[in-house]
Amino acid sequence: MAISIAARMENYHEFRDQVHCRQRRVTTVDRRGTDLVYPIIGQHLTVLQSKICIEYPPLESPDQIRLLKIHPGEPDDSIEISFVTASLNDTPDYDALSYTWGSLTERSLISVNGDYMPVPRSAFKALHALRRSSCERLICVDALGINQQDIHEKSHQVRLMCDIYQGARSVVIYLGDATDKTFDAMRSLQYLIQARKLNSSVEPPWTHKKLTDVEDTLQDILKRPWFTRMWTVQEATLARHTILLCGDQHLSWNGNFQTLRRIAFRIKIIAISPYFSVSSGRKSKLDWSPFLDIIETQMRQAARREGVSIQRNQLDLAFQFRHRRCSDTRDNYFALSGIMESENRGPLEFNTDYALNLEEVHLRFMEEIQRISEIEDAPTSPTPNSDFR
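^ thats the sequence. predicted structure below, dont judge the formating
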């Protein structure tokens, strides 16, 4: 039988006298938002878990999964959820969370059907960020929805992960807490994702900043632990709609081939642009691969779904070899012209012309890539729940 937090605290001093290991802690939030931090002695957390017996509703068919229903609440309210079982064959309407478990030694308490359950602090923060103020939200969180003590259930549910993430309305990538750099970093990524011509009058958010400052800001996102974990690759790749969430900042994009191709194009064309190659007297050292690898993996998955073939073009070459040296920066474009082909094997309309300055060369190169690749403004498609809240 589940034990309430009040009963647990009555027995706390008895637990402390019985167990002698190094200190850890468990945190919860009361209904007024006050942190209640209790020291936990070593393996005491395992004892605690054995006494907080959460009853998982049974999974009665091979295609059933266990979802979390996050009850509405204000920022200072405690997190309250309930479990809901659903059949994948019935195409339930839910979101799926992709996040990193983080440290398992620091846990927070959430309310599950009136009982209390310790969860990793990262999961607690993700649930807090995902909770709505006025309506429930149905979401798949594998670490919580799967009974981790039942090996057979865990094995079977992991085999369903492909269907779970592919069937979700949106996959929410939670990167963790915001920092003082997160707003600018997410604004820069939003510029790359939004549907607008690169040569329009709208300036990139970083136009009037030093390159080193821009690199430092973007690394706030690109160096997050989420981009280093293996399971997150599949979770993001299978998404038909993606929401990137960091603190209270979020952005989203569709998982169709044309949209993803446009995003990859924008990242690469900007990475080889004069700003990132000569604006500070050096080439940028920023590693775009954490974000770009996810976009291109999503793009390949979308191409398979839509029956589209993908071929490398000259932009891929220019991006791949952008760190190579040359005396004249314009040669970053001209030196590859002999091995460049359009995707339809037709002739290129990009000729070596040293009468053009660097900005003019880059603009002509960009326009030629757009022409042969048939990349337009990619109008915004209807998206499921494009408003995060």
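The chain has two domains: 5-168, 173-373.
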